[in-house]
Amino acid sequence: MKNKYRQRLLWLIILALIWQLIASAGIFSAMIFPGLDQIFRSLINSLSDGSLLKQIIFSFSIILQGLFLATVAALLLALISYFSTTAAGLIETLTALAHPLPGIALMPLILIWFGSGKNAILLVIIHSVLWPLILNLSTGFNSIPEIYTLIAKNYRLNKIDFMFKILIPASLPYFISGLKISWARSWRALISAEMLFGAVNSLGGLGWYIFQKRVFFDLPGVFAGIIVIIIIGVLVEDFVFKKIEKVTVKKWGMVK
């Protein structure tokens, strides 16, 4: 694990040096290819006045709301699909139709039907997150070994006990994998939605921050916003999802 982080840090240093060398060489105008000193100066200024921190908190709050609602809905739909062959046909059809459809394609309709408020952004996030979660959960439910089902029948478990003691725990690797995909897709949906819908109640998130910087041709600010998104993504992946995997599926010997 330590070697992994050392390698990652080494590559980051190499990439940063290459970036700074290109910027310092003057191959491109500083207006379109700013140096790292300009980018980090813009980042520090935005953090010091508190504006960027508020936008990070806003983005986090709306993503967590969307993820929670989509996860609950996906779990319910996947369970219904597992226990009902009739419902499974409908849910599989809806998933096949909606999953390839990018959230940004629905934004004009959402804008007309629901306006440009927080609920509109939530709907875009839920759409982007719901379908991959349903797919992963359904795959996990249908991939549990047959012996688990036989054990449940042998112990005469009812459906509730079967769900919470066998079905959901056995499909946890698929669930965590789906959450990882959904986390990434929720960020894409949020940034796209905020760039289209703008600020919500005079407060926007990171997408609105990047959009504003782009409008004023503040490229260091644009890159600063992108760096913040990357850092948040890496931290959540390494310190949230990895921790969840360590105390669950890895501890139980379900994955290496």
Automatic annotation (TrEMBL):
Predominant subcellular localization, coarse grouping: membrane
PROSITE patterns on file: ABC_TM1 (PS50928)
Keyword Protein biosynthesis listed: no
Cross-referenced Pfam families: BPD_transp_1
Transmembrane intervals: 9-36, 56-82, 94-114, 120-141, 189-209, 216-236
Localization per Swiss-Prot or TrEMBL: Cell membrane
Record key words, sorted: Cell membrane, Membrane, Transmembrane, Transmembrane helix, Transport
Domain ABC transmembrane type-1: 52-241
A GO BP entry: transmembrane transport
PANTHER family to which the protein is assigned, alphabetical: ABC TRANSPORTER PERMEASE PROTEIN, ALKANE SULFONATE ABC TRANSPORTER-RELATED, MEMBRANE SUBUNIT
Family: Belongs to the binding-protein-dependent transport system permease family.
Protein name: Binding-protein-dependent transport systems inner membrane component
Organism: Halanaerobium praevalens (strain ATCC 33744 / DSM 2228 / GSL)
